[in-house]
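Here we describe the complex-level prediction in full. Unlike the single-chain runs in Section 2.1, the two entities below were treated as one system.
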Amino acid sequence: MSVPLAAYLAVSAVLFGIGVFGVLSQRGAVMVLMSAEVILNAAMLNTIAFWRYRAPNDFAGQIFALVILTIAAVEMAVGLAVMVMIYRRRKMQMVDKIAELRG
Amino acid sequence: MTPLWLIPVLPVVAMVAILSLPQRWTRHAGGIASSGAGFATALMTVHLAATARGVQHASTTRLTFAGTTVDVGLATDPLSAVMGTLVAVTATLVLVYSIGYMAEDQGKRRFFAVMSLFTGAMLSLVLASDYLVLYLSWEAVGLCSYLLIGHYWQQQNASRAAFKAFLVTRIGDLGLLFAVVLMFAGLGTARFDAVLAPGPAGTPGLPFASVIAVLIVVGALGKSAQFPLHWWLPDAMAGPTPVSALIHSATMVAAGIYLLARSFPLLNAAPAAHNLILIAALVTTFGSALAAAAQTDVKRLLAYSTMSQLGEMGLAVALALPFAAVFQLIAHATFKALLFLAAGVVAQAAGSNALTGLPNSRVARWGFLAGALSLSGIPPCAGFWSKTAVTTGAPPALRVIFSALTFLSSFYIARAFFLGFTGRAQARTSEPLSFRIPMYALAGITLVTGFLWWPLAGLLRAPRPHLGREAAADVLVAGLGWAVAAALYKWRALNAAAFREQARGLQGLLKGGFGTDALPLAFARVASSVFQAVAAFETNVLDALSSAVARGVLRVAYGAGIVENGVFDRGSSAVAESAWRMATRTNWLDLRLLDRSVLRSAFALRDLGGRLRPLQTGRIYHYLAAVFLWIVVASAIAFALRW
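The structure predicted for the assembly as a whole is:
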């Protein structure tokens, strides 16, 4: 237990910042999705760290982590599917060109 | 054993099938109708055989209306089984004939539907076990008769004849209706066994028995075209020939005789009814036989012959020989249907019913000859046996009447045969199978039915015919009739023009049925002058009276009009005006206040929407930035508040 909790939280905050930056700045849809994934990982790291240091005898933390993992996978699958469909119809995948809900 | 009600229902099913047939299958209508009647024949034969073994069937339904219970139904006994078989067989044969006869007819579907309905109604008439069912069927066959006489409704004489037949038979039907009503009033039932049962000590068990008997006779006279209700039948020949064969000779007109035979115990106890039959039948049988001898239209000739024969059956009933009448009815149905079918073959080919000028046809000639011999009572035809049954049962004093009748009927039918069916062949007509089969069958039946007399007599519990000198004398008289007709019309023995001139006046008198046809006309004239007097009374007195009343009413109405204009109209105008004013004010209020405020708020919302619209860029990162910004702001606020 030489590494303190604050170090984990700092890494998590950095990851979150990178993710937010990526989501807001990237134009490619794949990059946006990857950034969202980084945000989720930051949240997951936070959760695990708090569980390990604060309530290691409770299963809830691990279960939360697993749920976040699942949600990340599902979100990835749906997001990529949407993007593939858009690409097939319009031959482009730049998020700033997709400003309308019409098909 | 199949249920009895199936027998009349089968032809009705055929009718429904024909009416629901698609247009392009109309040519099968005749086949369906014949099959319906054929199945009924088969079932009827089974029941006849059962009856012969002494097994009788009945199917009864109990109806309850308005608290009254009535049993109605069908039943077989020897009489109804024999009659039903006769009706079914004749109907089947005539329907088969009609397939050929009506092949080119436009109204084929209608014709076969009504013929099927008639077959069903006639079967239920003879199978009925009570007077109610009998009466209903009686009306149904009358309706079918009306529809079929008027089959060629485009021709005025056909539609008039249908109307006439309907009205005249309706007089008789009314008699039967009253009889049924009286039965219900007296006994509460109209079942044959109850109505015809003898009461204690030999008196009839029925109240008003003699009145009912007379009313029944009136019904039978109308249906069987007996004087004074006889004058519809000759005109009824305006219908197609199969109709004349089936309805107006073989079955429906014979229903009157069936009714008399069925009601015989009742009639026998009522002298008034007895005398009525005797007089009507005597007048009809002689008048029509004389009229038949003078006809120039083959179908009218056969119609008068039918009336004469029915009169002879009526005489048999009046002489207390109901079963001889029934046997005569059976024989008559077969040979008269045959005569009509034979006449129809050639009359259709000629396009006219005129006796002279019918085309030559071998089938028609031999068919007509077989029927004519049977009608004259020449052995071994059915007519001989039935006539013998009647004459041998009659008292000796009346025998001369029957001999005269035999002579007359032999004469007129021989005259018809020599004038219409022995001409030289000009153009041979070729008859389709549907013409030949029923005629062969009927000819066979009329030749053979005579020998059925012994089993039939046993079945109907009638006396066996007595073959003696009387029968031989009748055959001789019939032969004399044929000889006279042959001398006059074949060998032209009296071929002088002077004789013809003299005969013409007589013919004119005879053609009208010896003046009997004029009688109803005289009645009509008296009635019409009565109506004219009533009409004059009406114009002179009632009209003046009613116009005075009308004037008074008019005046009252005028006064009422003034009152209305002065009082009610003004009042209602005032009310209307104030309502109008109020409405105007409300309208102003509505426009100024309500409409404006509603519109203002709507416009304000629209403007707000317009202002907010630029926020919706559709760019995802704008939305995400807003989300993160909000998180930062919310976190800052939460931190500031130490929450």
